[in-house]
Amino acid sequence: MACGVIYFILVIYYMYVQGKLMKQQKWAYFKSKLNLMELSIILLSWSALFMFINRSILGNWEIEYYQNHKDQFPSFYETAAADAILGYLIAFLVLLATVKMWHMLRLSPKLHLITATLQRAWTDISGSLLMIIIILLAYSIACNLVFGWKLYKYKTILSAGIAVLSLQLHRFNYDEILDYNSVLGGFIIVSCIILLSFVMINLFMAINRVAFKQERIHHKPSEEEEIVHLMFTKFFSLFGIRKKEEDKDQRHYPKQIGNNTSVSKK
């Protein structure tokens, strides 16, 4: 309870900050992705609070109704629906908070290097993700056409796609597929695991590895990183702590020894 109160105090403070920014920037405020993320976090926080209150009221009312009418069957559908909506709101809120925390940790050189690597490789990553989606869709359609006539799990393309994703997580009923059609079932299972679990994931990791190598060579620290580094340097200097920094631009060239050199003396 105390954590929730502290959280909403911070939400109110950020509402004040975002309100000032909105007043200063006006329509330009909505052009910034960071501002939109902050606004979404605020809206989701208040929506989750209202849904939590709604769920508590509905739950107490239905429990009281059940205690007073034990001969009847009470319906907890509205409470369950409110609880499900609250769970979805909290999930999206945690997702946005994680993205915000990652953005705040960009001041760390290592984390900024990872972020810059993902930005450098985003074109190739988006292409590989598109290929993964196409392969998933192809296997979903194939499973729907082959097994949808008899197996309920593959009646629709969406349910077949969920089953294919479950195959990658190893939460899959192999027996029902092999019992229905051992040849096609075995081929689909083996080829899907090879394509998605080995080929595409290894391709995805290779793209990130190449981009990481390039980023380490051509990495440029952000302005915030340099400011934080300067602040830490000044802070440590107050206590007499000095850090030895290596000059990255200094290069050591091998000495060239010439056997047939002539020295002219004036």
Automatic annotation (TrEMBL):
Residue stretches spanning the membrane: 6-22, 34-53, 85-105, 125-149, 183-207
UniProt subcellular location: Membrane
Topology of the protein relative to the lipid bilayer: Multi-pass membrane protein
Ranges where the Polycystin cation channel PKD1/PKD2 domain occurs: 1-211
Pfam families: PKD_channel (PF08016)
Residue ranges with Polar residues bias: 257-266
The protein's name: Polycystin cation channel PKD1/PKD2 domain-containing protein
Residues covered by region (Disordered): 247-266
Keywords: Membrane, Transmembrane, Transmembrane helix
GO cellular component, one term: membrane
UniProt similarity note: Belongs to the polycystin family.
